[in-house]
């Protein structure tokens, strides 16, 4: 009897979903409990997106503290100890609290709609994996108020800085990373289960929109590397509290082992933060070029190739720790090899636009800016991959410029593009065009003013994570700080725009964009709480 | 309706299978992360990377001394924070012939006014030389206990084998002193004893 029970469960659920769904519409559970207990993929998706937007502003304020201190040479506003906490917390919050959850939020909202599924495969797990996040980040932020302050060892938390020399709050930091990691893992399991099992009848894997493909591969990366991160922070925890010596040379351990473990997680993590962005851009560019995506299959294979290669390049973050020559060369060449599948993607996007009938709605603006600026970040990545040159670039602002180019005008712009693209589907209204254009241009100018000068200060030797700098870097830093405040302030426009869009605006039809072809555009705008209770039949000739 | 139910149960089975597989992969990767710790040591030992050296004395390789070649061996000593010791070496640098065994004296001095346990952790640069360096006796194989103000001399006897790569002209041996917790030291001694028994 017992094994039969789960078999009946989803059937019951789908029948109650249609019956109970009606009830839910007439009398939705009110107040906080509705959001605490919801198992609806759209509501959980919205929760994820709102949470990550909140974290984006918290992490952004930390970044502005850093930029305010670096506005002029010398120490003006904050103590160096607090400066270190700000750089660390900015990185941790943006990576684990803003970028990753916003992609999970988009996946929650859009994957079931794109594959014609009624909901995620494991709705209750979905609820749990979201609500772990506020717990994790409340814990992480609370370390700032603890004696000795919060984490101050950089977002990479290298041992022994994060073990022997760390503030007492580090144990709480470890716990919060564990919780956030479990949340990501559960989210990944859910996405894999949904994509592999809940596709509409007739939809093959190679019929899926690219966003589903890139997320599926991202989810596999998460499954592979989040346990390694969990292992590494567990070793830290034991080194700090239980007298082990994983990373302590005095007890026979090795601090370099920490770096190997961290970057074995950390490099695939970089792709976890960019592959879903590739999927988003691969949806937007064909829509506004009014052409099919050029080279769909090669896009899928390129994504897979990037994912596999990401496990073979981790030591390019560690060129200066004293690797043997063979390892330096191996990691240099594998890193450069990643440029090939990435190049395939960029050329495919360009080829999609070639002879297309292009229009420049806000999602397209952000997607185009993504392609150009992500490529700039890719090029500086190639420079950093050159092992002999990296000895000069290592731990300078050049590295800061590089990874901010792939993460801010890269990942973040893709998320903003996705928001503009799917806001009509979420709210039933088009976002205000004028405001969106202001937001776009201020963001582009702000982002480049902030990060482009960092290339120069970095090449000239300005070290990262230091609250003061030599006078020769003053002008570059002035420009960067002005750009950062412009960029930060212009994101308030985005919040205002979203609030306006939720409240009203030009009504959007089911197919909100002329060239949009995927399944999500076949449901009404705004998407009702329950969609695809009867799976749609997918026709192959669409592709 | 019947068909839909069947489809639903098929999906449920598929979901459960996927979840079981991903959980299995997760557990595997978590174990793998911890397995990387011993694997890392094994990898370093096999390749001689990272200056990891043997923790036990090795036998002298009887081979003819290569008088035609001389290699510079440098000694660097360091004391980590928290250990009130000085470590001095009788000579900073010597020239040796491959195949020849050489003894160098190291002087340990406890400047504190209480007895302390300490340990010297070795490292070899370039790492490639590591596989060709044989230590016949070394103070770094065990922990030392020095009384307040005590000063002792301990030897290092080593041999560079003749198959040392031709382009290695200088070998640097670094010894870093670390404090040892007394309880930990007892544990370590027992663990070393076990290892000795196996060998």
Structural description of this entry:
Chain A: It is an enzyme of class 7 (translocase). Chain A: Residues 13-27 have a biased composition (Low complexity). Chain A: Its EC number is 7.1.1.9. Chain A: Pfam families: COX1. The complex is a heterodimer of chains A (543) and B (199). With 543 residues, chain A is mainly α. Chain A has helices at 4-26, 31-37, 41-69, 80-115, 123-142, 170-197, 210-241, 255-272, 275-289, 296-309, 325-337, 339-353, 362-385, 387-393, 397-427, 433-459, 474-503. Chain A is globular, with a radius of gyration of 23 Å. Chain B is α+β, with helices and mostly antiparallel strands and 199 residues long. Chain B is elongated. The A-B interface holds A 6-11, 14, 121-122, 185, 188-189, 192-193, 196-198, 201, 223-225, 227-228, 230-232, 235, 243, 246, 249-252, 254, 256-257, 260-261, 264, 322, 324, 535 and B 4-5, 7-9, 11-16, 18-19, 22-23, 25-27, 29-30, 32-34, 36-37, 40, 47, 49-50, 80, 119, 121, 127-128, 176, 178-181, 184.
Report the count of strand segments of chain B: 9
Radius of gyration of chain B: 26 Å
List the secondary-structure elements of chain A in sequence, H or E: HHHHHHHHHHHHHHHHH
The chain-level mean pLDDT of chain B equals 80
Query: What is the CATH superfamily of the largest domain in chain B?
Result: Ctag/Cox11
Give, in order, the helices and strands of chain B: HEEEEEEEEEH
Low-confidence stretches of chain A: 1-26
Strand content of chain B: 25-35%
Biggest beta-sheet profile of chain B: 5 strands, mixed
> How many DSSP helices of chain B?
2
Largest interface: A-B, 42 and 40 residues
The counted number of beta strands of chain A is: 0
Structural class by helix and strand composition of chain B: alpha+beta
Assembly type of the chains comes to heterodimer
What would you call the structural class of chain A?
mainly alpha
GO molecular function, one term (chain B): copper ion binding
Transmembrane segments (chain B): 20-40
GO cellular component, one term (chain B): plasma membrane
Keywords (chain B): Copper, Membrane, Signal-anchor, Transmembrane, Transmembrane helix
């Amino acid at each position: 009897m017992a094994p039969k029970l789960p078999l009946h469960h989803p059937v019951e659920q789908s029948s109650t979903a249609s019956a109970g769904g009606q009830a839910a519409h007439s009398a939705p559970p009110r107040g906080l409990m509705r959001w605490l207990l919801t198992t609806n993929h759209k509501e959980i998706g919205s929760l994820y997106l709102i949470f990550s937007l909140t974290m984006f502003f918290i992490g952004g304020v930390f970044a502005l503290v850093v930029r305010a201190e670096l506005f002029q040479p010398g120490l003006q506003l904050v103590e160096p100890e607090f400066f270190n906490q700000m750089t660390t917390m900015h990185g941790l919050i943006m990576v684990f609290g803003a970028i990753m959850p916003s992609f999970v939020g988009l996946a929650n909202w859009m994957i079931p709609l794109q594959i014609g599924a009624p909901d995620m495969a494991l709705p209750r797990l979905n609820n749990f994996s979201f609500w772990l996040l506020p717990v994790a980040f409340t814990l992480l932020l609370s370390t700032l108020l603890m004696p000795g302050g919060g984490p101050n060892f950089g977002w990479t938390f290298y041992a022994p800085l994060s073990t022997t020399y760390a503030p007492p709050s580090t144990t709480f930091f470890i716990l919060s990373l564990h919780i956030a990691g479990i949340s990501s893992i559960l989210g990944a399991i859910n996405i894999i289960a949904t994509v592999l099992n809940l596709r509409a009848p007739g939809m093959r894997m190679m019929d899926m929109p690219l966003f589903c493909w890139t997320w599926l591969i991202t989810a596999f990366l998460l499954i592979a590397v989040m346990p390694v991160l969990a292992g590494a922070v567990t070793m830290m925890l034991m080194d700090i509290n239980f007298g082990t010596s994983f990373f302590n040379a005095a007890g026979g351990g090795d601090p370099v082992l920490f770096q190997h473990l961290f970057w074995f997680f950390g490099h695939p993590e970089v792709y976890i933060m960019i592959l879903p962005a590739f999927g988003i851009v691969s949806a937007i560019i064909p829509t506004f070029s009014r052409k099919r995506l050029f080279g769909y299959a090669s896009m899928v294979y390129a994504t897979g190739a990037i994912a596999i290669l990401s496990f073979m390049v981790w030591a390019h973050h560690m060129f200066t720790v004293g690797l043997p020559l063979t390892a330096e060369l191996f990691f240099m060449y594998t890193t450069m090899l990643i440029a090939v599948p990435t190049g395939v993607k960029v050329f495919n996007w360009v080829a999609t636009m070639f002879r297309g009938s292009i229009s420049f709605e806000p999602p397209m603006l952000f997607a185009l800016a993504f392609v150009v600026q992500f490529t700039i970040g890719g090029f500086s990545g190639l420079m950093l991959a050159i092992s002999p040159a990296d000895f000069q670039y290592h731990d300078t602002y050049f590295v800061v410029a590089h990874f901010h180019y792939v993460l801010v005008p890269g990942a973040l712009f893709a998320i903003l593009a996705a928001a503009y693209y799917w806001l009509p589907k979420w709210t039933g209204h088009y976002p205000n065009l004028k405001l969106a254009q202001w937001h776009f241009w201020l963001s582009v100018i702000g982002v480049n003013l902030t990060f482009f000068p960092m290339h120069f200060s970095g090449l000239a030797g300005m070290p990262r994570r230091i609250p003061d700098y030599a006078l020769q870097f003053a002008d570059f830093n002035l420009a960067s700080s002005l750009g950062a405040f412009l960029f930060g302030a212009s994101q308030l426009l985005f919040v205002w725009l979203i609030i306006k869009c939720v409240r009203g605006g030009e009504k959007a039809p089911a197919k909100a964009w002329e060239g949009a072809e995927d399944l999500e555009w076949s449901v009404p705008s705004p998407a009702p709480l329950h969609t695809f209770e009867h799976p749609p039949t997918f026709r192959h000739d669409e592709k | 309706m019947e068909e839909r139910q069947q489809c639903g149960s098929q999906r449920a089975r598929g979901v459960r299978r996927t979840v079981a597989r991903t959980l299995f992969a997760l557990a595997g990767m978590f174990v793998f992360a911890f397995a990387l710790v011993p694997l890392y040591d094994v990898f370093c030992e096999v390749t001689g990377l990272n200056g990891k050296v043997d923790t036990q004395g090795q036998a002298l390789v009887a081979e003819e001394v290569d008088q035609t070649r001389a290699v510079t061996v440098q000694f660097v000593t360091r004391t980590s924070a928290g250990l009130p010791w000085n470590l001095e070496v009788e000579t900073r640098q010597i020239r040796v012939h491959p195949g020849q065994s050489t003894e160098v004296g190291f002087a340990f001095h406890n400047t504190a006014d209480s007895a302390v346990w300490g340990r010297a952790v070795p490292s070899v640069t370039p790492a490639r030389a590591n596989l060709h360096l044989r230590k016949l006796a070394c103070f770094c194989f065990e922990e030392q206990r020095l009384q307040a103000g005590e000063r002792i001399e301990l030897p290092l006897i080593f041999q560079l084998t003749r198959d040392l790569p031709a382009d290695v002209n200088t070998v640097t041996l670094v010894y870093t002193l670390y404090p040892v917790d007394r309880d930990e030291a007892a544990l370590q001694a027992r663990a070393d004893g076990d290892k000795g028994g196996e060998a």
